[in-house]
Amino acid sequence: MPFSFTWSGVLLLINFIIVLIFAIRVLYTQRNIGTAIAWLIILFVFPVGGILIYLLVGEVRVSKKRLARTKKMIRFYDEFAEEYMPSKHFNPDNEIPPTFRGIERMAKQATRLGASSNNSMQLLSKTDDILQSMIKDIEQAKSSFLLAFYIIEPEGKINKLLEAIKVAAERGIHCIILADDVGSAPFLKSEWRIKLEQVGVFIQTSLPVGIMQTFYGRNDLRNHRKILVVDYQIGYTGSFNLIDPVLFKKDTGIGEWVDVMMRCEGPIVLEMAAVLYADIAVEDGVNLQKVKDYLNQQVTQDSGLTPPDDGNVIAQVIPSAPEQEENIIYETILCAIHLAKKSIVITTPYFVPNEPLLLALTTAARRGVDVTLILPKKNDSTMVHYASRAYFPLLLKHNVKIARFDQGMLHTKTLVIDGEFSLFGTVNMDMRSFFLNLEISLAIYDKEMTKKIAQLQQKYLEQSEFITPKGWRYRIKLWGLVENIVRLMSPLL
Q1: Of the CATH numbers 3.40.1000.20, 3.50.50.60, 3.90.550.10, 3.30.870.10, which one belongs to the domain with range 64-101+114-314?
Q2: Catalytic residue status for 284
Q3: Does 251 participate in catalysis according to the annotation?
Q4: Is 244 one of the catalytic residues?
Q5: Is residue 255 a contact partner of residue 263, using CB atoms and an 8 Å limit?
Q6: Fold: same for 64-101+114-314 and 328-492
Q7: Which of 6, 56, 180, 298 is the most buried (most CB within 10 A)?
Q8: 174 catalytic per annotation
Q9: Which of 181, 244, 413, 446 is labelled catalytic?
Q10: Is 378 noted as a catalytic residue in this protein?
Q11: Where is the PLD phosphodiesterase domain (predicted)?
Q12: Interval 69-103: pLDDT, tens
């Protein structure tokens, strides 16, 4: 029978070859098995759209210019540590509990930022307390303050903070704001930006998006950090974006957002400043020299950058970014879970684990560790809501406790191990936080401070309901099907 030539057949063959080429690329470039399988499903089920999506967000692509500036940032961290961080504060190895010394060394090797002693910390768990404290410190600033936030929404209670920034700048205080181009789009396009720039506030956009950026790197890499540094003496970080928790996403019906921040004094504030300055400088090659010149100018002043001895908390700043060689916060979380002997308590708004994290949690429970997850009952992300529920049966089977907070959108991100070590910051338990976003966490090697975080977790538990294996098993079966279908895409969430 002679071969029958048709254009539709040729196009089908070309399409198959292109999909096959991309499938091979997925197998070579995606180290995570779950992610690779998810992309293969997308490519073969939606060949045309799947290829376009993969080109946009399939791989962690960072522009060559940004990579070059990132290499300079690594040297900047080294220089910052050597020139501005007093060595007496940054060598507390013997004071760290032996079980967790490896975490400190691993993180320091990856980020150049080690643990420091003589810090004091105040846990702020109510929005009004957070904003009042931040506004008060900004109003009392003597020389400078630096802000980096994923979301800045100029409405409601946040207008008071923006007004405090404006007044401080008018009296000559040096101010820098680093705002994510997507998360803070309402602020960057608002009258507030114009007002603040008119009084001398320097506003830098982080990870700008656009058609041209698509050709050089991914548009969905986001700066998820939340940092405020005042006079190099006071620092804040945690889960709180600059939002009014009542007004933000109020139409979704999830309730008021529940967040926390840690107010810090002591040497650790310098590490927060280093992360913030590095983020500013990496956005523009000119900024790096400006940052160095400004820091040198500060050092020549009487106050310099030397922080006071404010307390006895040993802690460490751990920043992560997609261009780093190691996924250091993800590795730290896994390491901490494997080190647990008695208990693990995690609070996170978005729980979409990969296989290593899921295995770490279930094996911990199987070896007798009391493992508890505290998640919001309602979620602003429908995909995450269903994807996370797909993991509940396996977790419950291995005696992992799952509590669902029903008093609002629990946005707090904390991890407490054995009541002795804690991680506190911006990191969600999902692939985006682990591998794509710029994040920041505090590793806290202090029992008393960790105890306060554990007490906050306990308050969340008192406002939560536990899922029982029996109750979960007798749900409507259709939901299980929906959850498992969405779970196939979970490595991409």
Answers
A1: 3.30.870.10
A2: no
A3: no
A4: no
A5: no
A6: yes
A7: 180
A8: no
A9: 413
A10: no
A11: 219-246, 406-433
A12: 666 666 666 666 666 665 656 667 678 999 999 99
